[in-house]
Amino acid sequence: MHKNLPKYYYFINSFNKEHIKNLNKNIAIIFRNYEKPLDLNEIINIKKFCRLTGRKFLISNHVKTSIKLNLDGVYLPSFNKSLKINNYSKKTNFIVVGSAHNLYEINIKQMQGVKAIFIASLFNKKKSYLGFEKFKILKNFTKKRVVALGGINNENLKKLRMLNLYGFGAITFFKKHDNINSLILNKK
What we know:
With 188 residues, the chain is α/β, with parallel strands linked by helices. Helices cover 31% and strands 19% of the residues. The chain contains eight helices and eight strands; from the N terminus they run βαβαβαββαβαβαβαα. Helix 2 (40-53) links the parallel strand 2 and strand 3 (57-60).
C-alpha cells in the first residue's frame, strides 16, 4: 500500500505560484517541460512552495535530480523505457509514477516499479487517442493504480467515475478550476 500516493496530478511547465496556491492541496504538481533544460533554481523554488503549502511535488524524467533534491517523486513519461530507476537508492515514500499508451508501455512501467500508471489519451483526440473502450481494455492489463490522462473536462468527469479509476492528471482542467472540491475531491 502506498498511503502518500496522490489521486490528482497537475502538469505544469512553469511556476505560477498564485494559481497553484489556490488549488486543493490534494492535487500533486508534476513539473514537465521538455522544451528547455531543467532549471534547478526553479525546481528548488517549486519544492519549497509545495512543502510550505503541504502538497506533493514530482518532476518528469529526472530521476537522479528528484532523488538528489529530496523531492516527493518522479514521473516517468511513456518514452522513458530505462530500467535504471530500479538501481537507485530511494527513500521509502518516494513516489514513482509513469505514463503509457499501449500494452508494451504498461509492461515497461510495471518493470520500472511505478506505483500508478497514467494511461493516455482517454478523451483528447490526438496521436495517442484511445477512447473509452480501448482505455477500459488497457486498464485491465495492470494491477497497478490507473490514472487517466487526456482531455478531461467537466463534461466527461462522470465517465471517469464509471471507469473506477484511482485518479486523473490534467493541464487545462486545473488551469480552469482553482477549487475543484465540489467537482471531484469529495466524491468517490
